[in-house]
Amino acid sequence: MDVLVDTQRGVSWDYILADGSNDRACIVEAGMTTDQIDFMSYPPHHLANGILKPVEELLKNPSTPILKGLMVRWNDYQYPEDYDHLFNQALVDDYKRFHPDYTYRYNAADFGETGYVDPMYTDKNCPSGYYFAPQRELRDDLVLVSNHFVIPEMRLCAMNFWTQIVSSGEYDDIQWRYDQLNKELLDALAQGPLDADKALEIIDFLAPYGEFPDYYFQYWEKDKKPLDECAIQGSVSLLDLKELTIINHYGFYTDEWVTISLKRYLV
């Protein structure tokens, strides 16, 4: 953790840290390295001085320590519910004022442990980045991340106007992937501890042979192709921190998974 805190950082990023020896894990929500974050300088003026004005009082007691521009969500992090209950409905209503085609109606259940802001990946219910994203996972043995900040203080940093421009059109995808992965994990954990096969099935849920086959072709290809022509964007990896193995899937979707034993490289 000290390495991340002290490193000179210039962009925002989500980092996953886990230790198989003590069964602890966290998500590091990191911005640029700074001794002090002016959280309220990021939202638009009319929000910072209107709907979000009460946040100034909440910021006096951060939900987790602020460490040189980053905050950490440990597996037992307690999300401060005030942010959702106090602000999200007003933020949704405010967004409607400027976007007459936006039809989503705020529903508190959508922000609960098993809710969805977007029931399907084709839906467009997120008010851009102008909302406090819910933390779905409430179990102490589970921590989850896609591509967005969840810690409410760090969410303020995502409300900058230019951030909305750069990330335009991606907020719904990011939120839906987080929400769907949450459902996949909770459904599986309700049946007992995960084994490697089930974990692989879950992390591969967006593959073109999975539960949502059209997702791949909507985002990565204009026309459907045979699986041996469908490239894996990056890689899909499952890490076993006790056995020190990494199971990787890369190349094309018909390629075999490859297992790497870290014990052969660690001294």
**Which parts are unreliable, with pLDDT below 50 for 5 consecutive residues or more?**
none
What kind of sheet is the major sheet? Answer: 3 strands, antiparallel
Mean pLDDT: 93
Strand content range = 15-25%
Strand numbers in spatial order across the main sheet: 1-2-3
Alpha-beta classification: alpha+beta
According to DSSP, the number of beta strands is: 6
What count of helical segments does DSSP give? 9
Please estimate the helix content.
25-40%
Measured distance between first and last alpha carbons: 22 Å
The shape is: globular
Estimate nothing, just give the exact number of structural domains: 2
Summarize the helix and strand pattern as letters.
Answer: HEEHHEHHHHHHEEE
Radius of gyration: 20 Å
Topology record:
Blueprint: H1 2-6, E1 13-19, E2 24-30, H2 45-48, H3 55-58, E3 70-74, H4 82-98, H5 152-157, H6 161-166, H7 171-189, H8 196-203, H9 213-219, E4 231-240, E5 245-252, E6 258-261
Antiparallel strand pairs: 1-2, 2-3, 4-5, 5-6
Detailed description of the structure:
There is one protein chain. The strands form two sheets. Strands 1-2-3 form a three-stranded antiparallel β-sheet, with no helix packed on it. The chain has helices spanning 2-6, 45-48, 55-58, 82-98, 152-157, 161-166, 171-189, 196-203, 213-219; strands at residues 13-19, 24-30, 70-74, 231-240, 245-252, 258-261. Strand 1 and strand 2 (24-30) form a beta hairpin. The chain has 267 residues and is an alpha+beta fold. The chain is built from nine helices and six strands; from the N terminus they run H-E-E-H-H-E-H-H-H-H-H-H-E-E-E. It has two domains: 2-193, no CATH class; 195-267, no CATH class.
